[in-house]
């Protein structure tokens, strides 16, 4: 019984590493993946280029077709005769000549068209996004098309992170995608506070100091890159 319990515990740790301390089995099995803070460009064909952001995993289904298992990527479709396709969560994206950003975190998928046009197929429904438009869907629902915040979705491509009117909890979640270790937000009221911030991807510790100084957070640094905000 003890051996069985230990084996089960090891399996859980392999599937869900604590605080993201090491890659999960799903990450290791992906055709392409990026680590914390890493970005990578993959040219799958003359018609499809994928710029992968931090903590991103993709599988290649065909030269012009991928599945985004998790993370974020910018896709460039360069005049393909047949649409390039991206599967993500419960939906699928198709584009012939477009540049778009797709983010898949948890169950939610956010698609932002940056140039050209991209079709989003979700549960037999098809919606076309033009440049500057955004759509979010998950397994249970697809939201209405909205105007994307200027420069926010693609800020990471310029080495920056931008937040306008976002809860501080979302800022902390995003910092955790780029920074080794873990930032733990222990103040729910602070986490709900709406903030406006822009900072360099390489200066996440500076962003934490900004949160401390501007929003009155108490910051405690622990070994292993662990930071407590309260």
From TrEMBL:
Ranges where the FecR protein domain occurs: 31-118
Molecular function in Gene Ontology: sigma factor antagonist activity
Entry-linked Gene3D superfamilies: 2.60.120.1440
PANTHER family, sorted: PERIPLASMIC SIGNAL SENSOR AND SIGMA FACTOR ACTIVATOR FECR-RELATED (PTHR30273), PROTEIN FECR (PTHR30273:SF2)
Protein name: Iron dicitrate transport regulator FecR
Species of the source: Janthinobacterium violaceinigrum
């Amino acid at each position: 019984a003890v051996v069985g319990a230990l084996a089960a515990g090891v399996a859980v740790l392999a599937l869900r590493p604590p605080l993201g301390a090491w890659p999960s089995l799903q990450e290791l099995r992906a055709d392409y993946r990026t680590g914390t803070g890493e970005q990578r460009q993959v040219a799958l064909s003359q018609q499809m280029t994928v710029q992968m952001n931090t903590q991103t995993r993709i599988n290649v289904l065909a030269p012009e077709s991928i599945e985004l298992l998790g993370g974020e990527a910018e896709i460039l479709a360069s005049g393909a005769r047949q649409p390039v396709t991206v599967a993500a969560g419960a939906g699928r994206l198709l584009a012939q000549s477009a540049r778009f950003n797709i983010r898949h975190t948890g169950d939610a998928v956010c698609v932002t068209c940056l140039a050209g046009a991209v079709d989003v197929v979700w549960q037999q429904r098809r919606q076309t996004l033009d440049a500057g438009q955004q759509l979010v869907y998950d397994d249970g629902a697809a939201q209405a098309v909205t105007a994307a915040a200027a420069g926010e979705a693609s800020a990471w491509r310029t080495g920056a992170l931008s937040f306008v009117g976002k809860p501080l909890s979302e800022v902390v979640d995003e910092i955790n995608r780029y920074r080794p270790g873990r930032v733990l937000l222990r103040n729910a009221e602070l986490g709900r506070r709406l903030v406006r911030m822009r900072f360099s991807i390489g200066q996440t510790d500076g962003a934490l100091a900004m949160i401390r100084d501007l929003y009155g957070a108490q910051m405690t640094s622990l070994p292993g890159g662990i930071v407590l905000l309260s």
